[in-house]
Amino acid sequence: MAKYESAWARSIPMKEQLQIMKRLLGYTRPYKKQFIGAIVAAGFLAGVNVLLPQVLQKYMDDYLSHMNATTAIIFAFGVIYAVGTVIKAVFQFFQTFLFSMGSERGLEDVRRQLFKKLHALGMRYFDQTPAGSIVSRVTNDTMTLTDFWNVILSVIVGLFSVISSFVTMYVLNARIAMTVLAFLPVLLIVIWYYSHYSSKVYRHMREKLSELNTKLNESIEGIGIIQQFRQEKRIASEFEATNDEYLDSRKAMIRTNSLLLSPIINLLYSLGLIAVLWAFGLISLHSYVEAGVVYAFTTYTANFFNPMTNMMDSLSFFQDGVVAGSRIFRILDNTEYAPAQNPGASATITTGKIEFKHVSFAYDGVHEILHDISFVANPGETVALVGHTGSGKSSIINVMMRFYEFGTGQILIDDVDIHDYPMEELRTKLGLVLQDSFMFYGDIASNIRLFNDKITDAQVEAAAQFVQADRFIDKLPNQYHARVIEGGSQFSSGERQLLSFARTVVTNPKILVLDEATANIDTETESVIQEGLRRIRQGRTTIAIAHRLSTIKDANLILVLDAGRIIERGTHDELLAKQGRYYDMYRLQNGDVE
């Protein structure tokens, strides 16, 4: 069917499943003491399960059948059985507790490593991967691993029970024990078929869950636009369609499990029990069969098949865990890292001179966005980038900030190749202010210092005053400790941008990068921060993208870009005098030329 054509909806080969299982088990290695303790407890539990039926067998054959059970004997067997049951409960507790604690700690390590890896990936990965899909892998997929590891415990417990039950049955009656064992090949065939078929079902289910999370994430982030343009019905319809597809995948999973798990084992158990009783019935035709032996044998038959029921039921968690593991490892194995610096990079930015030499860049490595970009920004100068949408302005910022690796050419800072600076040096000395200011949950002070404890409260307040953000902060009930909710939605876009300016200034960067920094600010707020911006630029090299050409009149150099190329360069007055592209853009914005 078409809905299974996705790469994520194909079966996972058995060899790949084993590799994934091996890698997942590797996360349990630091907590091997807990797991070994759980396995030891499982071994003792299997031993108790073997001994308890023998206690009742001896009681039935040696005392009840001979009618010589006294009150003392009845009490003694009752106490022995009760003590055995309590011991069994204790081993069950340690088995479950130790294994669960080890699993939870392993899960925490996986989630921590996954989160760390996501922050090491380059921007290109996030350009290509929906946020909802990433959230699904970090939350839903990792949570599945706890059940996956519990499958391992279920298998170990089951093997102990199956082996001990069979050995005891073999000692009691070898021929009947082999009759029970004859059902094992059938079970192995069912397990093989289930693992092969269900991996496709579970991959499809996980894919649809990711799509569901993506739709949910997108609708929540865009709720304002959705309501503004009255798109509620369309969004609800799309979500319902995706939700129905996820429901269909869940139905396929339920059908598979309902057919191939417990019902098959229960059928095999019933047939095995019939075979045991039939065999004892044939023996009883010509010899005496002790009732205790029949009871013990039927109990061991149940102990032989019941763990298999648990193991088969756990196969659904196993397959879900394997699929989740494959999705997690696609992130952990991703090589789309953020651009790397040269080994031993140790240069320090001192003056802030920037030079682009014949730089070209393509986001996909094939189709160039920037073509032969060359310019120089001397220390303390301001270089403005202007041009229509898609002209390449933000791409210049992206490669200079090392969000993406450029192709040919060279970028120099203080006449040193940008690859020779440690990333920490670049992040410290290059201050970036984006068009959209993102605020983290917390308070104003933490958003300005960005959780850098080295920045004092005095520095935070000084930075806010420098950009004149203190005008609205001082009016808040708790001032710098005023609560900031998700995204800072209680503040206006202008207020959020002022906080973003303060966040940049507080680190005292040598180079200032403004990416449409005043695009979302009203005219009144813009006039407030223009003076602050002029002060910020004092002594700093500034690269500024601007749509409002009136804000970059005093720039030392203005570069006009079109289709990734610099088509004009010069000061504001020089470009107006040329009456070229910049002249047309300025006249369009202002009505006439001053």
Please provide a written account of the structure.
The structure is a single chain. The protein is α/β, with parallel strands linked by helices and 594 residues long. The chain has 2 domains: 21-332, Up-down Bundle (ABC transporter transmembrane region fold), CATH 1.20.1560; 354-590, Rossmann fold, CATH 3.40.50. It is 62% helix and 10% strand. The strands form 3 sheets. The protein has a 6-stranded mixed beta sheet, sandwiched between helices. A hairpin with a 2-residue loop joins β11 (557-562) and β12. The protein starts with 13 loop residues before the first helix and ends with a helix.
SS content category: alpha/beta
What is the number of beta strands?
12
Unreliable runs:
1-9
> Portion of residues in helices?
55-70%
At the first level of CATH, the class of the largest domain is: Mainly Alpha
Would you identify the CATH architecture of the largest domain?
Up-down Bundle
Q: C-alpha Rg, in Å? A: 35 Å
Strands of the biggest beta sheet: in what spatial order?
6-9-10-3-11-12
Strand fraction: 5-15%
Give the count of structural domains. 2
Could you give a short account of the major beta sheet?
6 strands, mixed
Whole-number mean pLDDT = 80
Say what the CATH topology of the largest domain is: ABC transporter transmembrane region fold
